[in-house]
Amino acid sequence: MDYLRSLKPHKIKKxxxxxxxxxxxxxxxxxxxxxxxxxxxxxxxxxxxxKEIKNSEDSAEEIKQRIDITVWFYLCEIA
Length: 79
Hints:
By secondary structure, the protein is mainly α.
């Protein structure tokens, strides 16, 4: 008991800050996983298109018309 009485109290503000950081990390987990999934899809699609271009005998104009370039924007709100 004497040992416990000799301990200095810790600063609660630091504990609150650590909890805020933890909560932010947990909140970002799902959006980051979704972004990683979208990157994987885009990378796979791009590799397929590169193979198609390499194996194609079409002109550059014909290839340009077939190639699909998609730009994704991922928006999330953290409460």
